[in-house]
């Protein structure tokens, strides 16, 4: 991805742990890398098709003047969030905040905090087979769209599927959605669990009936396995209630482990020949 650099933007701000820092203020230096697509601007020579680094510099100045933080970590986190939420075309930001006059009573050049934050694309499967399933699923989709720093960008058709896992129970209503989010996988999972709990979800029987099920299927091309979360969702390639809705909204999304698209996985699951001659 293309980059626009702002180096050593010098601002006088009032951030720090000690009272004199927040009262008197001190010098800070900002190194910013903006990740965006500069090709439209390069082809047209039109500033409106790029990110105006002058406006960004002044936005940083205004934001850091109007807000006070004790920690550089908090200042960096909140500044990145502000820029990502308000800057059209900004996909990712790399930020270093330097504090040349850090009060440590020792000779030093500078202290700094450096972070990288950006937008992520996640895919979430939704399902229910207890109560008013369609109402619950539709409400859940809307509620996912209200999660902080998260937007639902695509929603699949809802389909009725047979239960998975051998537990005798009612059919499920299933679907999938694409979301754009600033949250980490763990933060997103916590929000999904909150929504499930608000709809009466109880984790009693594995593969058993549930009022609402929200699972992260993909998060960018991340591959992770922890006690709380596995991405891609385990065994999703063998579950038609996941693969079919995913093939509808993201047919060319590739499984980061198997390297196959959702369209290909759907074909294999249903015994179809993808790309066969008509």
Overall CATH architecture of the largest domain: 2-Layer Sandwich
User: Please, how many helices?
Assistant: 8
CATH superfamily of the largest domain: 7,8-Dihydro-6-hydroxymethylpterin-pyrophosphokinase HPPK
- What's the main sheet like? 5 strands, antiparallel
Q: Which consecutive residue ranges, at least 5 long each, have pLDDT under 50?
A: 273-278
What portion of residues is helical?
A: 25-40%
Determine the CATH topology of the largest domain.
Alpha-Beta Plaits
What is the molecular shape? elongated
What is the helix/strand order? EHEHHHEEEHEEEHEEEHH
Give the rounded overall mean pLDDT. 91
Secondary-structure class = alpha+beta
Q: C-alpha Rg, in Å?
A: 23 Å
Give the number of DSSP strands.
11
Give the N-terminus to C-terminus distance in angstroms. Answer: 39 Å
* CATH first level of the largest domain: Alpha Beta
Count of folded domains: 2
User: What portion of residues belong to β-strands?
Assistant: 25-35%
Task: Explain the overall architecture.
- Residues 206-217 form the 7,8-dihydro-6-hydroxymethylpterin-pyrophosphokinase domain.
- It comes from Fusicatenibacter faecihominis.
- This is Bifunctional folate synthesis protein.
- Pfam families: FolB, HPPK.
- With 278 residues, the chain is an alpha+beta fold.
- It folds into 2 domains: 2-118, GTP Cyclohydrolase I, domain 2 (2-Layer Sandwich), CATH 3.30.1130; 120-269, 7,8-Dihydro-6-hydroxymethylpterin-pyrophosphokinase HPPK (Alpha-Beta Plaits, 2-Layer Sandwich).
- The chain is built from 8 helices and 11 strands.
- The chain has helices at residues 19-24, 39-44, 53-66, 72-86, 133-144, 185-198, 240-249, 262-269; strands at 2-13, 26-36, 92-99, 111-118, 120-128, 150-155, 159-161, 172-181, 213-219, 224-225, 230-231.
- Strands 5, 6, 7, 8 and 9 form a 5-stranded antiparallel sheet that branches.
- Helix 3 packs across helix 4 (72-86) and helix 7 packs antiparallel against helix 8.
- The two termini are 39 Å apart.
């Amino acid at each position: 991805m293309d980059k626009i650099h702002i180096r050593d933007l010098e601002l006088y701000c009032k951030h720090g742990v000690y009272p004199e820092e927040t009262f008197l203020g001190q010098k800070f230096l900002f190194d910013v890398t903006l990740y965006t697509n500069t090709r439209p601007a390069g082809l047209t020579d039109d500033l409106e098709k790029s990110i105006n680094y002058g406006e960004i510099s002044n936005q940083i100045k205004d934001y850091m003047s109007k807000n006070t933080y004790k920690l550089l970590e908090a200042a960096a986190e909140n500044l990145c969030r502000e820029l990502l939420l308000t800057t059209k075309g900004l996909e990712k930001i790399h930020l270093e905040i330097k504090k040349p006059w850090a009060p440590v009573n020792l000779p030093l050049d500078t202290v700094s905090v450096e972070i990288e934050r950006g937008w992520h694309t996640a895919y979430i499967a939704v399902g229910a087979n207890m109560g008013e399933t369609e109402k619950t699923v539709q409400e859940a989709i809307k509620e996912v769209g209200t999660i902080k720093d998260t937007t639902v960008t695509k929603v699949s058709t809802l389909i009725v599927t047979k239960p998975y896992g051998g537990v005798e129970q009612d059919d499920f209503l299933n679907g999938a959605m694409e979301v754009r989010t600033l949250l980490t996988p763990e933060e997103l999972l916590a929000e999904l669990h909150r929504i499930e709990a608000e709809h009466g979800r109880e984790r009693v029987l594995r593969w058993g009936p549930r009022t609402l099920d929200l699972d992260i299927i993909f998060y960018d091309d991340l591959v992770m396995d922890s006690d709380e979360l596995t991405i891609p969702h385990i065994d999703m390639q063998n579950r038609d209630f996941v693969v079919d809705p995913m093939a509808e909204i993201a047919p060319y999304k590739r499984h980061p482990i198997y390297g196959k698209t959702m369209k290909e996985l759907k074909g294999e699951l249903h015994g179809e020949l993808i790309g066969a001659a008509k």
